Amino acid sequence: MTTTADVELQRESAESAELAEYRQRAREWLAANAPKRGARPTDGDAAADEEAGLLQAEAPQEGRGGGPEVDRAKAFQAQLFDAGFAGITWPKEYGGQGLTNDHQRVFNEEAAGYLLPTGVFTIGLGMCAPTLLEFGTDEQKERHVAKMLRGDEIWSQLFSEPGAGSDVASLQTRAVRDGDEWILNGQKVWTSGAHYSDFGAIIARTDPDQPKHRGITMFIIDMKATGVTVKPLRQITGGANFNEVFFDDVHIPGDAVIGTPNEGWRAAIAMLMNERVAIGAGGGGGGGRGGGFGSLSRLAGARGLISDPVIRQSLVDIYIRERILGFIGMRIRAAAKAGMAPGPEGSIAKLSGALLSRRSSDLGMQLAGPAAQAWVADERAGSRWAFASLSAPAGAIAGGTNEVQRNIIGERVLGLPKDPQVDRDIPFRDLKVGTQREPV
User: What is the model's pTM?
Assistant: First the structure.
């Protein structure tokens, strides 16, 4: 019988000497600097607690400016950068390594067994930085990208509003030009990590006389600027990692525009595509807090259920879906390396990840039984499966709902007709959308 170890040995023997050396270097660095998955939680063991689901989105629950978890993430990201394992395929001129997708694949394979406290950088490195690389000025890229890679800057994305969720183009936050500056007023909501972010990418209405998909501009905003107020939103899991953000006469420098004024929808679409890629290709709930195949199979073994044919079928289903999602991620990263803009495959990955997260958490609850419903206060890992179950539905909303992803797949992959858009050519000020009930 061919074992997993045999397959890995055959794969490694087929690699070039350069990749083999790179794999060994990554293996040694990870062993020396990162905690293994499945570590038994001990007092003060934040990495093990994270796998148990006790840390809420790898970020402090309250307050501005971060906390111990964010400080730990920044320190680790700096180590990752200094060791040459951050931005593996990114351009060298902006702090990347300029290596191939094979190098990224090798590192990902070696890192799969470790807990890397890098979640606070997902939005910045997965969404904002790629958009900045595509639409930003040379000065903006030189100013920010390397610092984002090293963890010196944490970024957030400010798109959703109380009256503009899935219909992002109905946004009403306004930016008015004032000499060499722009004055920003409005509100955003569901902004992940705003309370510990240094900068953000925000879209605002800059010309209400144009239709709603035009007259929008994307800006870089200093999240600590005067007039920016961040308020946490308490979640069902007990965490407070989403926020509502208010802007009251916030001054934005003229050189903070990403792309072209009034044409920010192009940059916004690119960022939304990057978001779906980051969520989907990044795992979308297969590992982490939801508990992937490895965690679930260990739990089944501990519960004496590993021989149950129904449980085994469910575990195999999780494994297959994880593998497929991994292959989609490889395809997406290969396309990005070839210079291709993210396409509808990001929606496929994002939808697949959301569905996988729900299946994984449901199976975890089934395996854990009563222990997932109630646990003693000093049982540090007791909340793991309850947390996974409570947080899984968010995956069907964040980054665009499952319904939005299915529409995109239907239109752009299957060639189905688009929904009617009767307001496409009407000036935004004449629309009664979202919370806008009177013409502006």
Answer: 0.82
